[in-house]
Amino acid sequence: MNRLALTRRLPLVLGIALRLRDAGADDTYIAAALDIDPEGVGPLLEVAEAKLRHLAADGNARQAPDPGTSSNP
Length: 73
Fold this sequence. Notes:
By secondary structure, this protein is mostly helical.
């Protein structure tokens, strides 16, 4: 799953923050868009990236075949 698809699975505020950052927005712009203090943007992005990594890892784990199963009898 690509990054954009994963950001759509995040809570709205986290997804918006990441999409704005990916588009090149600075902390002041992101803060204004989300109506938060600029000092909160960094930690918010850290949480968003961590959740994004978790979603990506979870998705990869679900897509990987179970090593305990085999299609050959």
